[in-house]
Structure formats: C-alpha cells, structure tokens
Amino acid sequence: MYDVIKRVGDVLFALLLLVITLPITVPIALLFFWINSGNPFFVQMRPGKGGRIFQLIKFKTMTDQKDRFGQLLPDEKRLTRFGYFLRRTSLDELPQLINVVKGDMSVVGPRPLLPEYLPLYDSTQFRRHEVRPGITGWAQVNGRNALPWERKFEMDVWYVDNYSFLVDIKIMLLTIRNVFLAKGINMEGYSTTLPFKGN
Question: What is the pTM of this model?
Fold first, then answer.
C-alpha cells in the first residue's frame, strides 16, 4: 500500500518543486548553456528498478575538456567553479525531478549508479535495485561520497528492507540539513568519488 502512496507523493512533490524552483533552474540552465557551449544538461544512462536502464538528467557541472590524446581530463580539472558550487548545494540534482515524474526515480531511494557496476555486485548488493532509485537516500544522509562503496551498499540494502513513510521523511529532513552543511560531497582527496571496481 505504501508503494502506491509513495509514487503519488513522488509525482506531486516533484511537480510542485519543479514549479517552485523555476526561478533558480532557468538562470542556471542559461548559464550552463553558455559555459558548456550550448549543453546545460548532463544525461547519462543509469540502471533503475530491476536494473532497467534509463536516462538520468543533471546539470552539467564539468566541461568536456580533453588532453592531447583525446582523453577526458581528470574530474578536478573539468569541474567548473560554478559547477562545484552547484554540487556543494546539490542544485545540480534538480533536473532529476523530471526523472521522478517520468517514473524512473523516486525522491528517496538508493542513488542510481553506473550500468557497468551491475555485473560487479554480489547478490546482496544487487538488491538495491528492488526499489526505484532516489535523488537522495539513506547512504546520502550518512556520508554520501565520503563513504566506502561497501558501506554505501549496506545502507542501500537496509533502506530496501526498511523503507516507510517515517523513514522517507527522516531522510528528506536529514537531506535538507546536509545540504546546508555541505556534508559528504567528496571522498577525501577527490573531486567526486572513486569508481567501484567490484568486491
């Protein structure tokens, strides 16, 4: 029963937030349109519920600068100052509200990761795909990118086994707190986080 309530709440909340944040998202999109030569959005394939692949939408916080061999430069060299600000405030995540309305994501759930990680999970870790991925989740409010992968997956599976209205409200309130404190954005010494290479 809660799954139905959660889905309806997701759509209503996402639509409301999309309208409320228009005065923020439109200027950001225009600025990134200029910074990124006409492409304000970062679109990437991610696995959702059941491992189904969908297109995740975020603001594009990194440039496409490449070295002389045609390889992308390291994250820390491509992350713009404004992009860093957006990541610090989590404003780069706002376009994912479109994913929520479409049904790809929920407001709260395990973060959608990369498709190439799918064959690297053990059977327990893969259970994170039993629910829709979220814009925020239990791992995000307990360390986010500062956590090692194994701990993140443990928290994702904990959420799958324990999600409820009260748990979701708690995660949303902790998310607001963490955004203001800018907690857990990076792993120490990295601009984003290290890739998952399996167990």
Answer: 0.85
